[in-house]
Amino acid sequence: MTAPAHPTTPATTTVPLSVLDLSPIPSGSTPAQALRNTVDLARRAEAAGYARYWLAEHHLATGVAGVSPALVIQLVAAATERIRVGSGAVQLGHRTPLSVVEEFGLLDALFPGRIDLGLGRTGFRAPKGGGTPPAPRRAAPRTSGRPRACCCLRRTTSAGCSARRC
């Protein structure tokens, strides 16, 4: 019995790389610029050969523009050609399962074979025996007077949300 032949050169294995983007709002910038940065990074990732571009969902987080994965996925998928685009966990505590299925079904119809759906849960769960989940805690108001981003993605002062939602 002879030993199996070994290649003279080591085999190379490619590992598909992905990007996870929170769509951060840089200091002194705007949510609109943060979303433009996200689209630009996605284009660069696609050009560099990355396999996937994941978008994270975060709520009530100052400095993060990624509050609606489906909307940001649409922006990124429309601006790219081949890279797969997906959610790094849609938080089911904030949406109904039906709305998520419909949103991502529509995205898949627009960008066939390129959309990935990641699901997650939040800390806001319905109490045992039914009822509604507790309201999320709001961050303490800033007192520095510096501009900040709020949940409606409008620039405000420390006095509160310009849309009176925060």
Characterize the structure shown.
By secondary structure, the protein is α/β, with parallel strands linked by helices. It has 3 helices and 8 strands; from the N terminus they run E-H-E-H-E-E-H-E-E-E-E. It has helices spanning 31-47, 69-79, 97-110, and strands at residues 18-21, 52-55, 84-87, 90-91, 115-116, 119-120, 148-149, 155-156. The strands form 3 sheets. Strands 1-2-3-5 form a 4-stranded parallel beta sheet. A two-stranded parallel ribbon has the order 4-6. Strands 7-8 form a two-stranded antiparallel ribbon. A hairpin with a 5-residue loop joins strand 7 (148-149) and strand 8 (155-156). Helix 1 (31-47) packs across helix 2. The chain is globular. The chain starts with 17 loop residues before the first strand and ends in a 10-residue tail after the last strand. Mean pLDDT is 78; it is low at 137-166.
